[in-house]
Amino acid sequence: MDEQSTRFETNAGVVAQIRQLPVGVVLASGPFNYPLNECYTTFIPALITGNTVIVRIPRNGAAPHFPTLELFKKHFPSGSISILSGSGREIMTPLMEDGRIDFLAFIGRSSSANALVKYHPAVHRLHTILQMDAKDCAIVLKDSDVEFAAAQCVTGAFSFNGQRCTALKMIWVHESIAPQFVQKVCEIVDAFKVGMPWEEGVQITPVCESGKPAELKDLLEDAIKHGAHILNAQGGRFSKSLASPTVIGPISQHAKLWTHEQFGPIMPITSFSDLSEPLDWLAQNHFGLQSAVFGYDPQELATVVDTMAFQVGRVNVNAPDKRGPDTLPFGGKKDSGMGVMNAKEAVREFTLETVIATTVNDPRNVKALQGLEGVSRVVKGTAKIKSE
């Protein structure tokens, strides 16, 4: 750790050096959808703060890590980082049960995070950063730019096949503009080029998980059973690992899509007449990663932003949810997250604060503390400490 991790306090005859020190052994696991960026987000801050790291890379998305293995071997001391690939149950469960993991940095399902934490024999001393499920929404106010909001919501819902924690997974649109909004959304979505990732101009590709199309089909059928309709002409089509982008609505509170994270190319839409409707839904939502609002009236925007700020980790105004830039803190509330990733905040997450103090009524005490510099591994910069 550099000297920026050190600060000094002098009060009531006591001088103290306060340092941020490594937590210990970090077990990190990232998701398949951004196998490099999000996986490395979990452990790079841990490495640079002096922790030992065990990284479990996802089965779907292991290949991009192979070129980096030699780099880690070349530039980091032996044992400082270990990279394992395979089933989380086979790799992470026994590591957690062992009890020597001090910190769990995890991106994935909340059910998996809950299970992993419970495997640890001393949960009370386990530190965590968890980024989990999400049910991000967009609220489209009556004074929004309909064409702009529709295009932004489509991007937010369907980029990367909607297989992003930050994907928009519920759209609330004011009833006065709902017909125009839905028409524009369907025009954009039905113009998508569907194909393989290596084909030029393709916007929708096969989903990554083999069982995902069947799960998405079940969600659509359930929504239709509760009064919804597929709104775009090309929606609701499935073939092996391919799921066509689908716009569906209105969504009933009894449908699974009301609360369930679809994590795929489905955009549920429902309309509202009173702003309390989407805000109540937001407050009752178990998840709280991000959300968005489209509109320009300061009073209505303030009402939405003030509510969202207590419910989600990031509020996007006239823009869809997104991860970047990585200079911003990334974290959620409720069942979506615990702790912060990205930026300098993440560096502090992987450290523990330690106080080294002495009284200043005897000059020998300060001299002794300063004498530790160059001998102690953690006492640094003590020349700044002066007796009162």
UniProtKB/TrEMBL annotation:
A Pfam family matched in the record: Aldedh
EC number of the protein: 1.2.1.9
SUPFAM superfamilies referenced in this protein's UniProt entry, alphabetically: ALDH-like
Organism expressing this protein natively: Hermanssonia centrifuga
MF terms (GO), sorted A to Z: glyceraldehyde-3-phosphate dehydrogenase (NADP+) (non-phosphorylating) activity; lactaldehyde dehydrogenase (NAD+) activity
The protein's name in its UniProt record: NADP-dependent glyceraldehyde-3-phosphate dehydrogenase
Family: Belongs to the aldehyde dehydrogenase family.
The UniProt record lists the keyword Oxidoreductase: yes
Alphabetic keyword roster: Oxidoreductase
Coiled-coil portions: none
Sequence ranges assigned to domain Aldehyde dehydrogenase in this UniProt record: 7-351
Reactions catalysed: D-glyceraldehyde 3-phosphate + NADP(+) + H2O = (2R)-3-phosphoglycerate + NADPH + 2 H(+)
Keyword hit for Transferase: no
Class in the EC hierarchy, top level: oxidoreductase
